[in-house]
Amino acid sequence: MSRIRVAVDVGGTFTDICIMDEDSGAIRIEKTASTPDDPMQAIMNGVEQGRIDLSQVTMFSHGTTVATNALITRRLPRTAMVCTEGFRDVVEIRRANKEDLWDTYKDVAKPYIPRRDRLTVRERVSAEGTILEALDEEAAHRVAEILVKRQVKSIAVCFMNSYVNGANERRMREILKEAMPDLPVSISSEVMPEIFEHERFSTTMANAVCAPVVVDYVSRLGEKLAAAGYKRDLLLLHSGGGVMTPASVRDFSARLAGSGIAAGAIASRFIGNLCGFPNSIGFDMGGTSTDVSLAWNGESRITKDWYIEFGYPIRFPSIEVLTIGAGGGSLAWQDEGGSLRNGPQSAGAFPGPACYKNGNRTATNTDANVVLGRLGTSLAGGKITLDPALAVQAVQETVAAPFGMELHQAAEAIIAVANANMGNAVRLLSISRGYDPRDFALVAFGGAGALHGAAVAKELSIPTVIVPPNPGVTSALGCLLVDVQHDFSESFMADASTVSPAEMQTAFVLMEEQAVERLTHEGVAREDMALQRTVEMMYQGQWRSLAVSAPARIESICSLIEAFHNEHEREFNYRREEAPVSIFRIAVKAIGIVPKAEIPRHEVLPHKPQPVGRRRVWFDGVSHDAAVYEREQLSAGAAFTGPAIVEQFDSTTVVPPGMSATVDGFLNILIVTKG
């Protein structure tokens, strides 16, 4: 029997399963309804529905929303924090900033761990790492007794300056473990050994509250898969764009926050590279939201400035993804000033758009697309049928009548506002970061990405749009394209002009030894390991740093300084050659390379495909007779021009008038936005 790889992406409405044959590279997909109360049930339902023999599965990779949902809903187990005396309120004081500076009535949410469960002990470490006061072990034992009585499920230990010397934190953990051997204990000197107390404490707090939830879920899923015949490690996608095994989940649970959206960014980057576009923008539009990501020179943009809830940063490296409330179910509405708006309110999975026949009467993007003829009346292979009369009624009542517009003009206005919102998101992630969208291809996927991708690209002067073979399950595909990955970092604060290359080399070597040990623990062979170094630097006086790549052997700091000047100029459009440069942090990315199955390439035979039908589609106020194609019938080399509609099981692609499309050897549709 063929060996297969399975990837699962759990969404709010559907759980997508991507099944790849290792030998042929052939991919098939399955979709099953998600089970929010227990995501594992939907996974097992999908395995059964897809007739997957788990004994033949060589890799089972999973992008999960368990950690994200736990933090959003705050359905968290009782967790405690142990802090240096006098510093229990660091996570509540935060940075004293607000998400909306001008909204005086909107308060930042409370910390994940309430004040009554944040206890203190006497200890102190200097900024240089000298132990000024050893841990008060008598007080530490009293704290342990209190936490046993409170029956907490997890503990975070966060001491001042432990990032340079974690001895007191490690001793505190030993005392806690003596009293509660099976309890997960996160210590900040291991979770995030970096300066800035709030960010370090916040990350450790998030890690601690997620640990019991994630460990329980991963353990149960692993047992279910093993009972059904799966013999390998379950691989879990983390926010940094790699995977980790259950062995690391207990210690770094918060890395799974943001797991789901990272999968789409990974798949987008892969598809862009496959098509010859190392610079690509991922455009993942679903039913409720749109996720935008960016790859430059074949690499995803990474950030450490992210959070699930404002005020509580999670400083693990993460693929930078910008999410906005724009999707197929986004509602059209009129604001107090009389302007037409779109989203972020959504009709959700239920009742859904008006044309879903579940009682909603407010127009959505899906309804507007139905009115314009861009979306057919049958979705998901006939599992969902749409009522165009209800779509017409919703657009008429929501927009056409209030604004005095003709029906199709109103529908186009709804789409135009949605496209503008999504275009602004792309600008924020590209232009505001120093990237020109004209240098990129737009990879459009998700259930609705291919419907809007060409229009958004045209607005931004992006020359090429790539629509993958299975847009609706592209995020699941991303779970098949990842390696085992861990990120290590530590503060290294020094003046770049005086730092010793040997000193930095020694620090990197020590970190790499930890990295190799972690990958070995994950079962990665030494020949399959790759280590990537970066140095974060800034002009003296700044507090935001930029990362530059570092060589395998540090022999000169001058080359690093020059690389920093170049990166600063690209990011901010200026450089200060005369200004002194500071080194802030060093980091190592440890990669355990997982063999990748090859995506099959088909022979390209240029031809003009035959449409399966035609229908009236509206663009720019004009009705067009558009060709309708079945995606499964479009072979490599097919070429056609807009206006055209391409329909398939999981998505619909729109090619507007004046644009041309071709199918490449990997069965991607490439739309050229300029004639």
From TrEMBL:
Residues 501-666 form the Acetophenone carboxylase-like C-terminal domain. It comes from the Bacteria. This is Hydantoinase/oxoprolinase family protein. Residues 200-487 form the Hydantoinase A/oxoprolinase domain. Pfam families: Hydant_A_C, Hydant_A_N, Hydantoinase_A. Transmembrane segments: none annotated. Residues 5-179 form the Hydantoinase/oxoprolinase N-terminal domain.
